[in-house]
Design a protein that fits this description.
This protein is an alpha/beta fold. It has helices at 14-20, 37-40, 56-64; strands spanning 8-11, 31-34, 46-50, 82-86, 104-106. The protein has a 3-stranded parallel beta sheet with strand order 3-4-5, covered by helices on one side. Strands 1-2 form a two-stranded antiparallel ribbon. Helix 3 links the parallel strand 3 and strand 4 (82-86). The longest helix is centred in the middle third of the chain and has 9 residues, at 56-64. The protein is globular. The protein starts with 7 loop residues before the first strand and ends with a strand.
Length: 107
């Protein structure tokens, strides 16, 4: 999602439908609402919770990369009041976690 995206209706990909609705018989013309980054950034406070080893790459990219549309969660760092809650598994790929200029809550 681009940085200035807003909440909108989107067509779900086949992989998203199969991952989230494996037993659904009619898998055609499925849509959902997605909250755009611009809409999210208008919040007073942002809380990102990433737990478990399957979130390690996403947490690493969010924390270590500059904001970019390939990884929309990287834009959350530009908000003045973002809280990131992680555990040991999800933070396992981050280098020098204590040196990052972020407030992280490790559980």
């Amino acid at each position: 999602s681009p940085q200035f995206s807003v909440t909108r209706k989107v067509k779900l990909s086949k992989s998203t439908i199969n991952a989230n609705f494996p037993n659904k018989k009619n898998k055609k013309n499925n849509y959902a609402l997605t909250i755009g980054i611009n809409t999210i950034l208008k919040s007073k406070i942002l809380v990102l919770i990433g737990l478990g080893k399957n979130k390690a790459n996403a947490i690493k990219n969010t924390i270590e990369l500059k904001p970019n549309k390939k990884y929309p969660s990287t834009f959350l760092k530009t908000h003045k009041n973002t809280m990131i809650i992680i555990d040991k598994q999800s933070s396992s790929l981050i280098s020098n976690l204590k040196k990052k200029n972020l407030t992280l809550y490790e559980i």
